[in-house]
Amino acid sequence: KSGEMAKSTQLIDNETFRAYATYTAIVLLKMMLMSLVTAYFRITRKAFANPEDTASFGKGDSAKKYLKTDPDVERVRRGHLNDLENIVPFVGIGLLYALSGPELSTALLHFRIFAGARILHTFAYLIPLPQPSRGLSWAVGYAVTFSMAYKVLKTVLLL
Q: Which compartments does it reside in (predicted)?
């Protein structure tokens, strides 16, 4: 029901909470995949950050040449860092939003737009797509999180 705070014992029956859980799982899994993409790029580009990661290439100077930065690895890392900066706030604010009693259709719109924006942002980073695609996808996701935060504050503080 819209406008009523969900009880913790009823969360699994709450469609808005289930929608939140679904889209949160999607964006968290996407963020986790970025770690695997980073590892893939490190291995294929032979660009490692830690000396122990180069042990399979020998010792001493023969292994030191693999302690380097690579533009492709750094691009993936920046995309992953951007996920951390944006998905983590979404998880917290989205939970508060889901518990604040929004209309299901409005909540779904927020969750779907955020997830879509983050997925587009990842493609824009990895391919890379020309700007402003990355900037716009970031801004859309950010605006969605801000919109949910405003709704939470409006509901809780009666703004």
A: Endoplasmic reticulum membrane; Mitochondrion outer membrane
Tell me the two tokens of residue 98.
Answer: 């889901």
- Residue 67, SS3? strand
Q: What architecture (CATH level 2) is domain 1-41+70-157?
A: Up-down Bundle (1.20)
Residue extents of the structural domains in the chain: 1-41+70-157
Q: What is the pLDDT of residue 98?
A: 96
Q: Which of 72, 54, 73 is nearest to 64 (CA)?
A: 54
pTM of the model: 0.87
- Provide the pLDDT for residue 55: 82
Determine the Cα–Cα distance for residues 131 and 46; give it in Å rounded to an integer.
Answer: 29
d(CA 47, CA 109): 40
